[in-house]
Design goal:
- The chain is of the alpha/beta class and 229 residues long.
- The chain has one domain: Rossmann fold, CATH 3.40.50.
- Helix content is 23%, strand content 23%.
- It has 5 helices and 8 strands; from the N terminus they run E-H-E-E-H-E-H-E-H-E-H-E-E.
- Strands 1, 2, 3, 4, 5, 6, 7 and 8 form an 8-stranded mixed β-sheet that branches.
- A hairpin with a 3-residue loop joins strand 2 and strand 3.
- The N terminus and C terminus are likely disordered.
- It is found in: Cell membrane; Early endosome membrane.
Length: 229
């Protein structure tokens, strides 16, 4: 089974996501959020999840069959809070589009992924953003990920174009590479920092809630899971 690991960002963000050497988290509060990945087929959504959760990359990742590829959990540690993500990875094929709202409704965060070497996937990403803005939770945190940054020599979507679009629509934006791990942890950490954690709720995750669920007092087992294998 997939353990609850701690994805610690590197370089500039490392100091904000720390854990004690013995695996005990410094965080005093655990908040849980539902996060969904959306985007055209073959842009690397499943690869991003695999890199973030397990630190792995498969060169020949099969396309997701069915609307839902996987439901995985992973945590990032902030100063006094552990943010636990429930990650829903969806298929990008058009025939599954009508089922997608079942998965992003109630999500507090979404990552819309496109391939920097494919202009059509960027146009499709814009459609997903519009749909989220229209139908998803009002306070959802949306991040735009230009994946496959390792294919810069085949680039079709300029960084500046995507950044301008993200700024105009109040989106987080990073170019990522599931293959080389560039910005993958940083993206999830940036989302974790933007999610509201000041008014946690006690109890199970409820679709449509826009705040984190405080898991700290639910079970003693939850308290020290962050950064354990």
């Amino acid at each position: 089974s997939v353990g609850v690991l701690c994805a610690v960002a590197v370089q500039a963000m490392a100091s904000r996501a720390t854990a004690r050497p013995n695996g005990q988290s410094q965080a005093s509060k655990i908040c849980q959020f539902k996060l969904v990945l959306l985007g055209e087929s073959a842009v690397g959504k499943s690869s991003l999840v695999l890199r973030f959760v397990k630190g792995q990359f498969h060169e020949y990742q099969e396309s997701t069959i069915g609307v839902l590829s996987a439901f995985l959990t992973q945590s990032v540690c902030l100063d006094d809070t552990t943010v636990k993500f429930e990650i829903w990875d969806t298929a990008g094929q058009e025939r599954y589009h009508s089922l997608a709202p079942m998965y992003y409704r109630g999500a507090q965060a979404a990552i819309v992924v496109y391939d920097i070497a494919n202009q059509e996937t960027f146009a499709r990403a814009k459609t997903w953003v519009k749909e989220l803005q229209r139908q998803a939770s009002p306070n959802i945190v949306i991040a735009l990920a230009g994946n496959k940054a390792d294919l810069a020599n085949k680039r079709m979507v300029e960084y500046e174009e995507a950044q301008t679009y993200a700024d105009d629509n109040s989106l987080l934006f990073m170019e990522t590479s599931a293959k080389t791990a560039v910005n993958v942890n940083d993206l999830f950490l940036a989302i974790a920092k933007k999610l509201p954690k000041n008014e946690p709720q006690t109890g199970s995750s409820t679709p449509g809630r826009n705040r984190g669920v405080d898991l700290h007092d639910q079970t003693q087992q939850s308290k020290s899971q962050c950064c354990s294998n």
